[in-house]
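Support request, please re-run this one:
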Amino acid sequence: MPVTHASFAIDKTYPHPLAKVFAAFAEPSLRAKWQSPEGVARPGDHIAFEFKVGGKESARWVMGDNTPFPGAVISSEGIFLDIVDQQRIVCASNMMMNGTPFSGSLLSFEFTEEDGGTRLTCTHQGAFFENSDGPEMRKDGWEKLLMSLAAFLAKAPDSSH
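Re-run finished. Output below.
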């Protein structure tokens, strides 16, 4: 099957200080609270990473009954390629379903102060191996994750960073 290549960018503005939004990506304990594909951590889910250039990250989720793949184990392994404090995070990763690779991605997160809040631009460049609707599903997944981030930021005190 041919590889499907696709890119997308998502811009979101959050009414929270830049340091708080950046910390939600940089601190494992905070990121684990919002970065679940369904917004709810399940037994067996985990996110672990060493937040530095060259640092590794790994994540694992068990998909729920209300997803296209109930019970499937989705995992990701990646590396941080560039980090500029409170400005950008760039990482490369692969994703697997039940141990079978289905995509490789380059992700860039850019953070800027805007109108008393923070503008986040998420740019995803991917190669999808499963020759399906992977690009559309990935964009939808990131849209949902960034909504989960908004809900998390609204509940977390500004001093949590």
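The two ends are 45 Å apart (CA to CA). Residues 134-155 form the longest helix (22 residues).
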